[in-house]
Amino acid sequence: MSTEKLQAEATTVTQDNPNKIRVIALIDGFNLYHSLERFDGGIDEPDRARYQKYKWLCLWSLVKRFVAPVTEELVSVEYFTTLPTWDDAKKLRHQTYISAQKLRGVNVTLGEFKQKTVPCRASCKQEFAINVEKQTDVNIALAMNHLAAQYDKLLLLTADSDQVPTINLLKKMHPTKQVAVIIPVGRKAKELKKACGGSAFKITEEHLSQCQLPNPIPIMKEGRQVALLVKPTVWPVP
Hints:
The chain is α/β, with parallel strands linked by helices. 32% of the residues lie in helices and 26% in strands. The chain has a single domain (3-229), classed as 5'-nuclease (Rossmann fold, 3-Layer(aba) Sandwich). It has helices spanning 3-11, 29-37, 45-48, 59-64, 88-103, 136-146, 164-173, 190-195, 205-210; strands at residues 21-28, 72-81, 107-110, 112-119, 127-134, 153-157, 178-183, 200-202, 217-221, 224-229. β7, α8 (190-195) and β8 (200-202) form a beta-alpha-beta unit.
């Protein structure tokens, strides 16, 4: 499928239709990524890596699985993530993935990593620096309210309970808005589900399998292919 067709699929919605519920999805990128990188319920190391083969995931297609086609329209998908600037190889892979999402019509908001000094919990008790993701939680919280005029229903893809206060505030400020959580595979989100009034969806392995991006993705310009976007070769194949 061409890039132009992919973009058309991603952005085609029923415009100005008052009978449709407008849906926006906000995705916590690293929360989703870590659910694929390591399945905590695995019985051994290979089992804990069981979802790594689904990293080439189409976020637009995934979210559409949780949108009712007759009564709802997916207005936009907002992806919040951060580039690992200390590792050039990882950074390039993530930039490739971000480019693939943008081709599907996904909007991307970047945060940043900052170093934090923490004490060793082992016997040495020495301090060392780690990279800590910053801004993503705040960016998601801001988007919930900043985009409120553009949606009737919010889908929040995360298992991070830090968003509970923001959901509570959103429901207080905009009591007519619907809010549902999409829980990453292998994760639990009891507090988020409670904050959403029990409205929750669960990502399954079938969803992941059915929502993989094509590889390679042709880059089209003025009706002709000018480049190919290729899945990182170190990522496992489903």
